[in-house]
Amino acid sequence: MPEKLAKEELNIILQNNLKGWELKENYIEKKFVFNDFKSAFSFMTFIALKCEQIDHHPDWSNVYNTVYIKLQTHSIQNVSNLDLELAQFIENIYKKFS
Questions:
Q1: Burial of 86 from C-beta contacts in 10 A (0-12 / 13-18 / 19+)
Q2: Within 10 Å of residue 54's Cβ, how many Cβ atoms?
Q3: Smallest Cα–Cα separation from 20: which of 8, 10, 32, 38?
Q4: What are the tens digits of pLDDT across the range 55-92?
Q5: pLDDT higher than 80, residue 98
Q6: Beta carbons of 71 and 87 less than 8 angstroms apart
Q7: Which of 6, 29, 40, 76 makes the best surface tag, with the fewest CB within 10 Å?
């Protein structure tokens, strides 16, 4: 079972490795902006395939060229290593689209 990460540890990881991700009460979030809807939706598709593979899914929304992503391990109602791994994957995909 995934374990909850301490806020102090999360803040250090976000600051050093996951720029732009913000720690909220019990999740991390980030907004991604693209040139158009097609790019935003393609980005989401790449992420969706990975999420199905690892059985870990984000809370997200899309408005035209903007994607909002919140990550939380629902089984513990907090942020775990699974969320950090998915956030890093998302960052790597985003680099290909920006």
A1: buried
A2: 11
A3: 32
A4: 899 999 999 999 999 999 999 999 999 999 999 999 99
A5: no
A6: yes
A7: 6
Joined together, the tokens standing for residue 36 give 């158009």
Q: How far does Cα 67 stand from its chain's mean position?
A: 10
Which residue is associated with the tokens 């803040």?
11
CA distances from 80 to 9, 33, 45, 72, 85 (A): 11, 25, 23, 7, 9
Give the domains, in start order, of the chain with CATH numbers: 7-97 (3.30.1360.20)
How far is residue 53 from each of residues 48, 50, 57, measured CA to CA in Å?
9, 5, 10
